[in-house]
Amino acid sequence: MPDLFDFFKENESKLHERPSEQVWQKLETRLKHNRRPRRQGIRFLQLGAVALIILLLILTAVVVWHFSRG
Hints:
mainly alpha
């Protein structure tokens, strides 16, 4: 079995090959086509969840403060 270093030495020239411009354009087209659009609704849901958690924390603090006074 040939040594791994020998394999790389023999095939070093193939490591520097670059695909043609047409290949890059086809790849970019496929990637753009397969990419799903970002949904804006998720961002608003996350913001709403954070606001709800903060509201619940404030409400809990007020209730605890109210009952601890008396």
